[in-house]
């Protein structure tokens, strides 16, 4: 991941509701959740949740897939992992001390 790309992802994550959504979707795993389920778990209105889901989708952090009559949202673990790698490997020069926090 390049700096410009990382900045875009960080910008998408610079909101408490969006961070909460990412954490909820990470916990849901590959099964994902519908927008309604996400809104309930976040405690936000459906329109507010949709706004944040659109921002996270645009940044490439989440994906949506139509399943039956619902849109199901899942985290793009490769993209999220790329951001972590950018921070720990690229920015921190693969410092064992800094990387120890994640093992």
Architecture overview:
Strand 2 (62-67) and strand 3 form a beta hairpin. The protein is built from 6 helices and 3 strands; from the N terminus they run ααβααββαα. The chain is α+β, with helices and mostly antiparallel strands and 103 residues long. The protein is elongated and about 45 Å long. It has helices at residues 3-12, 16-28, 35-42, 46-58, 77-91, 96-99, and strands spanning 33-34, 62-67, 70-75. A 3-stranded antiparallel beta sheet has the order 1-3-2. The two termini are 21 Å apart. The mean pLDDT is 90. Helix content is 61%, strand content 14%.
Condensed summary:
With 103 residues, this protein is an alpha+beta fold.
Topology:
Blueprint: H1 3-12, H2 16-28, E1 33-34, H3 35-42, H4 46-58, E2 62-67, E3 70-75, H5 77-91, H6 96-99
Antiparallel strand pairs: 1-3, 2-3
Helix pairs in contact: 3-4
Overall geometry: elongated
From the N-terminal CA to the C-terminal CA, the straight-line distance is 21 Å
Strand order of the largest sheet: 1-3-2
- The overall pLDDT, averaged over residues, is 90
Labels describing this entry:
single chain, 103 residues, alpha+beta, three-stranded antiparallel sheet, 61% helix, 14% strand
